Amino acid sequence: MKKFIVLWLAITCFYIVQAQNQLENAGFENWDEIAISTNDTIREPVDWSSLKTSDNASLSPLAPVVCWRSAEAHSGSYSVRLENIATLVIANGTVTTGRVHPDLNMAKSYMYTDPADGHWNNPFTSRPDSIAGWFRYIPQGSDSVQVKVLLHKGNGKEPDTEYLGDRIATANFRTGVNTGNQWMRFSAPFVYTSDQAPQYALVILDSGNGFFPVTGSIAFFDDLTMIYNSTSFKKEALTAEFLYLLGNHHIVIEGGRPENYAFARILDITGRTAWSGPVTSDRIDISRADLKNGIYIVSLTGNSHVLTQKIIVH
Q1: For 3-62, how does the pLDDT look when each residue is reduced to its tens digit (9 = 90+)?
Q2: pTM reported for the whole predicted model
Q3: In the chain, count of helices (H) and strands (E)?
Q4: Is 110 strand, coil or helix?
Q5: What is the torsion angle, in degrees rounded to the nearest 10, for the CA atoms of residue 212, residue 218, residue 223 and residue 227?
Q6: Fewer Cβ close by (within 10 Å): the C or N end of the chain?
Q7: Which of 150, 140, 144 lies closest to 96, judged by CA?
Q8: Mean pLDDT (whole number) for 230-258
Q9: pLDDT at residue 115, as a whole number
Q10: CATH code for the part of the protein at 22-226
Q11: What's the number of CA atoms in the CB half-sphere (13 Å) around residue 274?
Q12: Is 4-8+231-313 a domain of CATH 2.60.40.3080?
């Protein structure tokens, strides 16, 4: 039998949640102009880097531009656009909060946090439950878009066999879905391997499938958000509305007024509707929902009220 854990995300927690760490420039609104030669400049998002600012002084000038500022934003003014470009090899469209170490032998390439230089690291000391954000993807062939996040202390590197003892948690999202010009939400849970607090977050966004990208695949990313659960709060101490699951067939609205809501929707990690139905009482019948293991968002809506919470099915 499946067990459901409902994690509370209510208004009473707003200021506490906001105090938790978020990624630097996660909405890609701020950009640097970087001189790569006496006659040429490129743009990279502030606090992020790409192939053109790698640590390999001999390869960086030869590397293609794979990262651009885009006015096609999910919110705000800009998003980041990545594209796989064919040169000496097929360069993966990539951007990272760390730094790129490229190599013509792609098996020797990696990305890493440089703890000694603030330009190549993202300080991060919280323990989020998951990372979420928005993406658009136009793949070529069987290519897939990827999001990788490594929370770590000391040294962080991806891929890595050298500093595994410094790893605190990892989150990974990958899909080959073609979204066209539509923005789609993604979410990926963190898998913790240590009970320690991290020091840094190494985030890697790719428009291609790791070591096997396909030329011409294009990805856009925007509005990355770290999601925090509420396991530190006791149920009896809550005064705002929250949800919990009764058995496997009902979501119960507690601590509020069910009549404020008319419609319920359960979204999967891609933002697609996994189930929807009316709200007619404080007990929402989801017996016909076929929810596979994973993370879902429950959203209740009414004329002037919205209640949104996360559900982990496992």
Answers
A1: 444 443 333 333 333 347 899 999 999 999 988 777 778 899 999 999 999 998 888 888
A2: 0.69
A3: 1, 25
A4: strand
A5: -30
A6: N
A7: 150
A8: 58
A9: 95
A10: 2.60.120.890
A11: 21
A12: yes
